[in-house]
Amino acid sequence: MLRAGPFSDERIVRRINRRFVPLYFDLDPGGALRDNKARAFVVKAKPELGRSAVGTPPVLVMTPDGDVLGEIDNYASEEAVLDALGDVLAAHPGWDEPSDEEQAISKSGSALERASLRFDLGDADGARALLEREGAPEAALLLAHLCRLAGEWDALEQALARVKGAAFADDVRVERAWGRLAAREFAAAEKLADAVPRASRRHTEARYVSGLSRWHAGRKDDALATWRGVIESCAQDPWIYRADWACTQATESGARTGFSTADARASPLGRIGYMGRRNPDLDPP
Questions:
Q1: Cβ neighbours of residue 266 under 8 Å, at least 6 residues apart?
Q2: Whole-angstrom Cα distance, residue 248 to residue 236?
């Protein structure tokens, strides 16, 4: 669940990749992604997770020696995950020290490099302050991206107006599509997202947004077809996980309290349930 939910959020991915070592595995010793050594390591710290039947396990933040520093509930929001990671680092400031590479970027890196680093470390305001003084299109694009994540749509448009050049056309389309979606201009959002080609690095995100545009316009079957199409045709990434999450919950009725490997309601990725909170993107913008 969390791999599709909070762990498909870019802010969380960036923070983890800077300060933690993520390990994803199947706790079930017979599972497709089983890792017996990882399971033994976790069960030693949390013996209750070694039982034959357990509830959906939390995400554990652990030291290499097996000490549990924090737990993140399966129903956690993105903000709760960021807070939990921040709490661990605040309690262990030595682990939040900048690397040699980060010190070099802070000392002599470009404004874009320094802003990207601040974004990675959770300082979006500091990143924006650096980018607002830069005229390069790459800087304006990252500024627009940060404005979008903050839900500041007028500022998003102002930043996008500074992004010039065909090389950034798909990025502009995707960022603007999110803005149109938030404004409930679903046809405009769909048109922008559908203009992003398969070869673009933003393609999977664009297909996800296109599906959301159809979903919120009341075209459920079209939305599901869009999400299933990108899941089946593209390599897995956070947007594929999020599309799978949306597909599964869009076709379920009622809350799922358990699941079985024989469940006929498997997701397009073959998963058998997303036990956790509802995908927030399915709620009205």
A1: 272
A2: 16
Query: Are 95 and 19 contacting, i.e. CB atoms less than 8 angstroms apart?
Result: yes
N- to C-terminal Cα distance for the chain? 23
Shortest CA distance to 134 belongs to which of 162, 166, 99, 174? 162
- Mean pLDDT estimate for the chain: 90
Q: How many C-beta atoms lie closer than 10 Å to residue 283's C-beta?
A: 8
Which tokens belong to 148?
């979008």
CATH class of 107-164: mainly alpha
Question: What's the sign of the alpha-carbon dihedral 14, 16, 19, 20?
Answer: negative
- Measured in whole angstroms, the distance separating CA 177 from the mean position of its chain's CA atoms is 17
pLDDT in tens, 255-279: 444 444 444 457 888 776 566 778 9
What is the CB neighbour count within 10 angstroms for residue 191?
15
> Please, which residues have CB within 8 angstroms of residue 59's CB and are 6 or more apart in sequence?
2, 71, 72, 74, 81
Dihedrals φ, ψ of 11, to 5°?
Answer: -60, -40
CA 211/CA 204 separation, integer angstroms = 11
